[in-house]
Amino acid sequence: MAKIEFKNVRHAYPAPSDQAPVYALEQVDQVWEDGGAYALLGPSGCGKTTLLNIISGLLTPSEGAVYFDDEEVTHLPTTERHIAQVFQFPVVYDTMTVYDNLAFPLRNRQVPEDQVRKRVEAIAEMLDLTNSLKNRASGLTADGKQKISLGRGLVRPDVKIIMFDEPLTVIDPHLKWLLRSKLKELHQQLGVTMIYVTHDQTEALTFADKVLVMLEGTIVQVGTPVELFMEPNHTFVGHFIGSPGMNVLPCEVKNGQVSYRSHLLETAHSHKQEMEGKLEIGVRPEFVRFDDAGIPVSIERIEDLGRFKIATVAHEGDVIKLLVPDEVKIPENSPKIMFDPERTHLYCNNWVVK
Amino acid sequence: MNKTVNQKAWWLVVPVLILVAFNAFIPLMTVVNYSFQETFGNNQFFWEGTTWFEQVLRSDRFHAALFRQLMFTGMIILIEVPLGIAVALTMPRKGPWVSVCLVLMALPLLIPWNVVGAMWNIFALPDIGLLGYSLNSMGIDYNFTQQPVSAWVTTLVMDIWHWTSLVVLLCYAGLSSIPDAYYQAARIDGASPWAIFRFIQLPKMNRVLTIAILLRFMDSFMIYTEPFVLTGGGPGNTTTFLSIDLVKMALGQFDLGPAAAMSLIYFLVVLLTCWGFYTVMTRNEEN
User: Fold this and answer.
1) What are phi and psi of A294, to 5 degrees?
2) Is B182 in contact with A91 (Cβ distance < 8 A)?
3) How far apart are CA B228 and CA B244, in angstroms?
4) Phi/psi at B11 (nearest 5 deg)?
């Protein structure tokens, strides 16, 4: 079990010598608490995998230091880090049986054969692989192979951190859910720190206690799924998490008063009298409702999703989405909408103003 | 929906059948024709039955050539395959040197066979060739035109120089297809370089190695031009491989019947060995 700490970590991949380095990871200062289940969420190319590879030691950061339990490990090789990693595409040693695959990390570390047997059998039991232990690993399905990749991490008693790099990409949809609950279960059973990289918000939110949202090499917000939903720190978090994403609308601040297209609004947090920069308000579709006292809009489209409807409306060229519960009737003549003041946030240059 | 059954489509295959008939089947049949008959020219043939086959199969000359051929091919495969794997493993996987290495590797493959033979002949000549002269001046008694051992070594080295590249390029292709994640996983699993080779690289090269061994077997088993230009089969008969012997018999002595029988036996040996190889190697893969 280990706490991970990043201090001023930056990383740039080697660039042609005549060009300035491009940082795949801008300044990261972050603590991952011992035994936590974390998800790393962000679009492709935001630096998730780079961050993961720095933790596992497959990459050495260009700048900064990495600590495990207050001990610096920045230059420690992967083999000495007590970590395991599961990759996007399952890695199995084709010529070996499932048993030999699981035993491989232990045998490489010269563990006596009777202990190897005990560990492998225990882990196989945990992952429901007992029946296929004698089979060739190459014959298994994608989810079976991914279980072996995971098993090779779990089999080492010294592993304190397990990292997953989009592990469910090649798994059939109906098995994804099963495997994800298996991971959750293992986390509770073993108490190891788990870091799960994904670009799928459902995966991140169901797996993790805490989610780190990344954008262009920086961590934009760390929080529980509820925090990310209720209080997005950055317009990107608002967009990326939630379906449909947060409405982001241009606004102005004058004399301490926020206005959207000359409609005065209340927001959740106080702010300065006058503000500079790109000002926007963000409000989730869940917190917009039809109200006769509100802003007049025209209805563009209604999608019925069964338990609720998604209404797409427009006001002076801005598209606003709102979630309408099934029992609420959508007004037919001159509809008007209101934003929930408690859930309306002001953003300056994409960052929330608190 | 019913499919229309139309057998007329078979006519589309006819051009290919004609082509195959003229370039393979008919020439082969003339050989079969010669192998069962005796001819003294003037298009006169006398039926001999299986006499030529028995004669060839019992002749010491054929046994000796076959033995030399098997020795040569065996040594070629035993040297070129491990050497090819080793070279492929040391080649860079990324960066500007990749294309340089690939071009250097491909060069020997682009040289015509008789040129390779001529090059090595001149290169190895004991009195004026760079290799032959240097070896002799270092005190090594080397003369491939007179010493069987020197002739064998020169022929082997020439073939290794010419064809190891093929194995290298095939292995390199196999190695390049291994995703980085495999190496990363191996590092996390604490695998030694030997374990990485044994459990990741070698299994991933399995298919290309099957092809490489098959190609090297066939090419070296049928080798003619290079040793013919280099040694002409000599000194004596020490580097007379099957195809050189066959040409001597057919064109040198004009023994068309035995030569035809020998070429059929030769053909069957190649075919059966390839089939055997292929069956064994693909069966390993399936298990």
Assistant:
1) -100, -150
2) yes
3) 7
4) -60, -25
What residues does each domain of chain A span? 4-237, 244-352
| Residues of B with Cβ-Cβ distance to A56 under 8 angstroms | 184, 188
Residue with tokens 């209805």: A299
- The confidence score (pLDDT) of residue B112 equals 92
Q: Which residues of A touch B187 (CB under 8 A)?
A: 58, 77-79
CA-based nearest residue to A189, from A126, A105, A120, A121: A126
Residue B69 — pLDDT band, cuts 50, 70, 90?
Answer: very high
Q: Which residues contact A271 (CB under 8 A, 6 or more apart)?
A: A253, A256, A258, A346, A353
Interface of A with B in 158-177 (CB under 8 A): none
Answer whether A46's CB lies under 8 Å from A212's CB.
no
In CATH terms, the fold of domain B59-286 is MetI-like fold (1.10.3720)
Distance CA B142, CA A305 (A): 88
Answer yes or no: are the C-beta atoms of A194 and A3 closer than 8 Å. no
Which residues have C-beta within 8 Å of that of residue B177, sequence separation ≥ 6? B204
**Which chain B residues touch A52 with a CB distance below 8 Å?**
none
DSSP per-residue letters across B44-58: -EEE-TTHHHHHHHH
Domain ranges of chain B: 59-286
Backbone angles phi, psi at A6, to 5 degrees: -105, 125
Number of Cβ pairs < 8 A linking chain A and chain B: 51
pLDDT tens digits along B98-128: 999 999 999 999 999 999 999 999 999 888 8
Q: List residues of chain B with CB under 8 Å from any CB of chain A.
A: 179, 181-182, 184-185, 187-192, 195, 199-200, 203-204, 287
**CB-CB neighbours of A315 under 10 Å:** 18
A56 at interface of B, judged by CB pairs closer than 8 A: yes
CB contact under 8 A, A152 and B190: no
What is the CB neighbour count within 10 angstroms for residue B13? 9
> Is the minimum CB–CB distance between A80 and chain B shorter than 8 Å?
no
pLDDT over 70, % of chain B: 98
| This prediction's pTM | 0.77
Cis amide linkage into residue B148, ω under 30° from 0? no
Indicate the fold that domain A4-237 takes in CATH.
Answer: Rossmann fold (3.40.50)
Residue B158: its pLDDT value, please?
93
ipTM over 0.90: no
Specify whether the CB–CB gap between B156 and B75 falls below 8 A.
yes
Residue A338 CB contacts under 8 Å (≥ 6 apart), including other chains: A288, A289, A290, A291, A293, A294, A295
Residue A22 has pLDDT above 80, yes or no: no
Is it the case that residue B287 has pLDDT exceeding 60?
no
Dump pLDDT digits (tens) for A305-319.
888 888 888 888 888
Rounded CA-CA distance B63/B71 in Å is 12
**B213 within 8 A of B164, measured Cβ to Cβ:** no
Both tokens of A295, joined, read: 């802003």
Write the pLDDT tens digit of every residue in B164-211: 999 999 999 999 999 888 998 898 888 889 999 999 999 888 888 988
Q: Would you state the pLDDT for residue B81?
A: 95
